[in-house]
Amino acid sequence: MQERLRALPKVQTLLESEQANDLINLYGYEDVADAVRGRLQIARDQIIANDLEVSLTPASLLSGVDDDLRAARRVSLRTAINATGIIIHTNLGRSRLAPEAIAAVSEVARSYSNLEFDLATGKRGSRHDHAEDLICQLTGAEAALVVNNCAAAILSVLTALGAETPIVASRGEMVEIGGSFRMPDVIAQSGAILREVGTTNKTHLSDYADAICEDTSVLLKSHTSNYAVVGFTSVPSREALAQLAAETKTVLVEDLGSGVLVDLGPYGLPDEPVVRDVLSAGVDVVTFSGDKLLGGPQAGIIAGRREVIDRVRKHPITRAVRIDKLSLAALMATLDLYRAPNNPFERVPVLQALSEPAQAIELRARDLEAALRTMPQIDVDVLRSMARAGGGALPQQDLPSFAVSLKSSALSPDGIAAALRHAPVPVIGRISRDTFMLDMRAVQAQEVTQIEQSVTASLAQ
Ligand SMILES: *Cc1c(COP(=O)(O)O)cnc(C)c1O
Questions:
Q1: 302 closest CA partner among 168, 129, 132
Q2: Is 149 in the pocket of ligand 1 (CB under 6 A)?
Q3: Atom 12 (ligand 1): residue with closest C-alpha?
Q4: What is the CA(271)–ligand 1 centre distance, in A?
Q5: Which of 338, 329, 458, 355 is nearest to 406 (CA)?
Q6: pLDDT digits (tens, 9 = 90+) for 117-172
Q7: Strand-strand pairing, 300-304 and 285-289
Q8: CA-CA distance, 423 to 376, in Å (whole number)?
Q9: Residue 413: is the preceding peptide bond cis (ω within 30°)?
Q10: Residue 277, Ramachandran bin (φ over 0: left; ψ between -120 and 50: alpha; else beta)
Q11: Which of 47, 97, 196, 435 might form a disulfide with 101, Cβ 3.0–4.6 angstroms?
Q12: Is residue 255 within 6 Å of ligand 1 at its C-beta?
């Protein structure tokens, strides 16, 4: 062992070679020297652990150094394939954009635009004007405003309407969603004082009414997104709450979270509240996300009564959390796909994935199975599976789907998952019933070849 350790080339010798010189010209001396030391340390550890089968030459060491330097420079944010079966997967970037939205981003990025310039008067315009008409058309709202995300939308609304005043909300709706968004914390951050009413499972209209005092500014209702209270439950209707808000001169705000613009009922999905219906039931202001069921970019939409929206628009916090022009372009292009003659279920990827019949998904699963069948040591099968909408929407609704299962005599399901995460195009699946699965509901047809390449590259022995 000592002999093998001594036989390793010295750092200095390696750095003086011609091959190293090329790398130094590209990456600089310090980075190459660090990478060389790193590779030599790994080689030493392997020799000590008696784990090094091939003998290392200076050339093979430096080619490893080259790989390391390239890998270290790879941009960390990159594309991955979502074979988890969760369509709106927050950890994987939520929604993919429609081609029209991608084109709009690219155009606005390439050029100057009338983002805050009124072409009619030649004077300063407002970025909020662009999306407002579209949102009003699609939701029936009098006025609308777009900010950075839904969390920012709620924070803006509550800060502008409720700071330093009591706001009343049901205990059963104090939701925590992923990424440490907790409703009570957001309320505290806005400067409002939370008056929590009711119990976990039941809140009555009288609970709200009893808690309202002279200073109360807001009645807040929230979508419970990622949980459901079942059994003996009750909440007052929106109409009843709206009437109470009108009588007590408070503002009824509803955080819808996902927010849908179209009825998902005809596609066999239970009724997620449609924004238009919520507003017409009398809710004054709603907030919802751009990149959940809407299928657009990260954004937070605030829509409702003009007088209330104007107060939110004028508050400085709304400026601090404003939407950027790339997201605004993507949002408007996405919203346009909801207008006739477009059918959003054919044009918005999230809605396509949600409404696709299981037989069509099975065909993709069979294509992938056929492509992988010849791989030695891998057992490939097509199974029925259950997908989910994700993104805090429709938490209880399973969507029938199909998955390709991969089994290996050499690797555990966790081992397969890890290998595919490290593929050139990472493929993220899930483990169910102790089997590694690639659910095909959120996978598009053109990604089947990419999956095949990633699986072949990572699992071929
Ligand atoms: C997802 C969600 C939010 C936060 O939306 P972001 O766009 O991620 O900021 C807020 N409220 C509810 C109920 C949600 O489901």
A1: 132
A2: yes
A3: 257
A4: 18
A5: 458
A6: 999 999 999 999 999 999 999 999 999 999 999 999 999 999 999 999 999 999 99
A7: antiparallel
A8: 18
A9: no
A10: alpha
A11: 97
A12: yes
Check pocket membership of 257 for ligand 1, CB cut-off 6 A. Answer: yes
Question: Could you tell me which of 340, 301, 327, 330 has the C-alpha nearest to residue 143?
Answer: 301
CA dist list (Å): 309 to 44, 78, 143, 422: 66, 37, 6, 47
Q: Is 175 in the pocket of ligand 1 (CB under 6 A)?
A: yes
**Residue minimizing CA distance to atom 3 of ligand 1:** 257
- Report the residue among 289, 292, 327 best suited for mutation to probe ligand 1: largest number of ligand atoms under 8 A from its CB: 289
- Name residue 181's beta-bridge partners: 177
Is the CB of 192 within 6 Å of ligand 1? no
Shortest CA distance to 454 belongs to which of 365, 372, 363?
Answer: 372
Q: How far is the CA of 157 from the centre of ligand 1 (A)?
A: 14
Q: Is 289 in the pocket of ligand 1 (CB under 6 A)?
A: yes
Give the count of beta carbons closer than 10 Å to the beta carbon of residue 126: 13
Q: Could you tell me the pTM of the whole model?
A: 0.90
